[in-house]
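Q: Could you fold this chain for me?
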Amino acid sequence: MTDQTTSEPIDTSNAASVDGPAKQLSGRQKATIALGPFLILWFAWWRLGSHSISRTGKYEGESAALEWLYRVPRTWTVDWFNFAGRDGFASVSYKATGWVNTWFDHLRYEEFFQFTVAWHLSRGPWLLVLLACLGATGWMSWRTRSNRWLAAIVAVAWMGWSVDLFDFLHLPTTPWVYVFVVVGIASVARAVQNRTFEWTAATTAIATVGWVTLQTTEESFNAKALFRQIARWLEFPLDITEGLLISGYGPWHLPDMPWLFIFALLVGGAGWMAWQRRSTAWTVTTALVGWMAVVSLYEPWHIPALPWVVIAGLFGVVGWKLGGWRLALLSVGFILYASFVGEPAEQAGAETRWDKTMITLSAVLVAVPIAALLGGIIGLVAAKRRRVEQFLIPIMNLTQAFPHFTFLIPIGVFIGVSHKAGVIATIAYAIPPMARVTILGIQGISSEVIEAGIMGGCTRRQMVWKVELPAARQSLLIGINQVVMECLAMVVIASFVGTAGLGQDLLFRLTGLHIGAGTEIGIAIVVMAITLDRLSQGLGRLQPTHHPEGAPFWKRHAYVLASGAVVVGGLLLAQAWDAAFRVPNSWMWGHEVFWEWLVDNGKSDVALWHLSGGRWLVPFLAAIAVAGWRAWDTRRYRWLITAAALALVGWSVDLFD
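A: Sure. Below is the predicted structure, expressed as structure tokens.
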């Protein structure tokens, strides 16, 4: 068949068939296919199996061939989870076999929470194979000028280091660490300036050789040591946030070398960028880095934590910026609740509810940026690489279907029980939602936006930073909201592996059946969750503000000036008035007594309130009648709910007995 106007054949592959549409399965047929095998097996078991199952779990029917209809035989199963000696029946015992059981027995009997994975290969043929792989990847990298092959070189070198093939290359830390640092910084500067493959390869080679020669020791690669080293890296941001909110900065400090040299470079670089670009952001960054350098290096100077009035004021400014006066009131209310509600400290120096709330808040403030950054990077790579996405989607589906406690098992095995272990479990739990939202956001960008970037002559890096990420901004901010909520949910449950804060306090209270105190802590967690959720939602709705040309500084940076005024005013107030720095014990009030009384007296067989029929029954019936009439007249659910609520109150005070 051809088109008469163009004389071209017409594609009829999608045309409807002359026999009509394809016949679909009916609902009865689908139900028969789904339920038929089950019904047949059930009928066979019910009709043919005159059987019984003894206490020992053994089938004692007339036909042993029908045992599989009732219960899967032991010979068909893999005994993976019988590692703790729980056999299920008194007279039956099954020996724990298989690699899973051996692994768990190794954990339970020999070195529980100390499980290690170590690899070691002797030099000789393995070293030759490794050098051949390094040569092949290096030649392919230089020939194709590809960053993928550079990454392959780093991966092969790291594998060789991990199995002890480079132990003979070990160099002393002093002075070689300073040599590699200076040469590496110079190479990075040249690579950023020229952006050529040669300088990128040189920087990669310097970093790889420095790592291999300085990190090689006599010990084999150890998975437990690796994970615990990663956990130690979290000490720095946790110390920063906890010092800012609770403990202050005193005995904690960094050694002068090499940190003095590193901080000098950071402060100098940030100051130079602030001067060149006349940027307020770089000026603030320079001040923060300088403050961190002073805090880290100048030990005799004790810097106290921020007073509660300063934290409340900063939360109020952030809430006003993101959601107006209502969100500001909610944010300040959260800080006031954490400050004033809770049992006072029994002795000087003991932790109060405020301290535990700030510990939980500091853990969330550390976990959210790390999880959002890692999840965003993973999602960006998966959105650009179809095979990476196909590999990650099933893994993310599986991890998001896992219960919270599942993430605690490997963390407890490889890292141990500590505050850092719970933060790592929190980060791991919050990464998949951010990665998934990033994939959806990047892939949901319209083709017109991509074509506009291509027509504008954007490079691949510019396309990512200036086109795709700004276009997916709304989705990314929604992902950050999800990360905040996942982190807050997990940081409470992570108290089972030692995470301090409100979660650990709640665990101890509920374990001791202190229901009132547990309810009080639960309300504090809920208030924190609502506040952080609303703040992150406000961040997602925030739009850039454009000021007219020539607007004064105080109009363009009103919230920055307000934050500065809050900090300066709060610090001065705290110096003059001790109660502005920390709420006195006499000001604290806890409502756990009310919840304890409600639990003790609110049982089903005890009437809390009783009103006699007579004079109280008539007003209740009148009120119910008025609410019912208004519900019928206005057709509004609120009046119907009011009538139901009045009836419930009347029943609760025994008016309808």
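A (continued): Strands lie at 118-119, 221-222.
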